[in-house]
Amino acid sequence: MNIVFLSPHFPPNWYLFCVRLRNLGANVLGVADEPYELLHPDLRTALTEYYRVSDLHHYDEVLRALGYFTHRYGKIQRVDSLNEYWLETEARLRTDFNIEGPKITDLPGIKRKSEMKRLFTRAQVDVARGILAHSPAQVRAFAVEVGYPLVAKPDVGVGANHTYKITSDAELDAFLSRQPEGFLIEEYVHGVIQTFDGLADRDGEPVFFTSMQYSDGVLEVVNNDDDIYYLTERDIPPDLEQAGRRILKIFNVRERFFHFEFFRTPEGRLVALEVNMRPPGGLSIDMFNYAGNIDLYNAWANVLINHRVTIPPTRLYHVCYAGRKPFRSYALTHEEVLIRFGDYIVHHQPMHPLFHRAMGAYAYLIRSPDRAEVIAIAQEIQRLSVC
């Protein structure tokens, strides 16, 4: 099986997907702009061949790479990056080379937040009231109707980039002065973020699913430059699982990871936020693996190559991510963290600079069957010095 993997070196732990594919007998064909000698040694071993382009944004170069691979190895069966940033590039390649998977015509539902809202409604899941910004008058009328605060975010965007919380007429006027066409304006929903994450098989059935809860919203963390922790759950709320399964069917998710985000309001209402047809970011896949003593890198490879995989349904542990930022003065040094909590910390590492603003520069993964225990340890790791 010939599988093209775009940007196999980033995120840094994604090389493991290529290793697992190769272990199952696939021809793994890498395309990226990273110098070959800088690739992880295990990635270099896993790749059947690597085609370096000057810039992965240059579609004509990527197109030539797939043409070369087709000439050399025959029909390409899959192309992927498991990275939201390259979804459009993947879809164009699948369209141009008639490769199975989401094509250009499938992109609106998985890229445009306005289209996501329409599909959420079809799946009978609540959404925040919102409009696409077409004129200042329209946006001001919406603000009068729903009140402040509002959230403004690009209809097509990744994470909390270029997302704004608007709390007054003055802030709205400042936002409108930037001619924000293509922005989605929504009512602000108070609540915690809960996710429905997993891996769907070839028939669209989840072979694995779980959920995470965040200490705070990514928007607030980025805007305030705060620390964040989030944890995997052992018990999935029934309404969350039901909503997640309905969304899976509406979005026709097949042979893919998924990451659905919701708000859980103080009243207990579940409000859909967005879908992502990729694994959640950072170290989340590793968190899921530690939580269940499983290997999702291998599970995804098996779904692609063997069209089946069996994963034990038991969630043995809560695993909590706790990030720290270098400009903060913490009560515990790194060495003190390891001495006090070393029995609970299953992994720790520096994070790539791209993740620093949202997730911190250094990460700890804390594991315990006790939910309150992992939260307490995360809060202690992030506790600031009083001096």
List keywords for this structure.
five-stranded antiparallel β-sheet, 387 residues, alpha+beta, 15 helices, four-stranded parallel β-sheet
Largest sheet: 5 strands, antiparallel
User: How far apart lie the N and C ends?
Assistant: 59 Å
The total beta strand count reads: 17
Helix content: 25-40%
Note down, in words, how this protein is organized.
This protein has 387 residues and is α+β, with helices and mostly antiparallel strands. 35% of the residues lie in helices and 23% in strands. The chain has helices at 15-23, 41-46, 59-73, 87-97, 107-111, 113-122, 136-146, 169-176, 218-224, 238-250, 284-292, 296-305, 334-341, 356-359, 371-381; strands spanning 2-6, 27-32, 49-52, 78-80, 130-132, 150-154, 164-166, 183-187, 192-200, 206-210, 212-214, 229-232, 257-264, 270-276, 318-324, 345-350, 362-368. The strands form 4 sheets. The protein has a 5-stranded antiparallel β-sheet with strand order 11-12-15-17-16, with helices on both faces. It has a 4-stranded parallel β-sheet with strand order 3-2-1-4, sandwiched between helices. Strands 5-8-6-7 form a 4-stranded antiparallel β-sheet, covered by helices on one side. α1 (15-23) crosses α12 (296-305). The protein is globular and about 60 Å long. The mean pLDDT is 94.
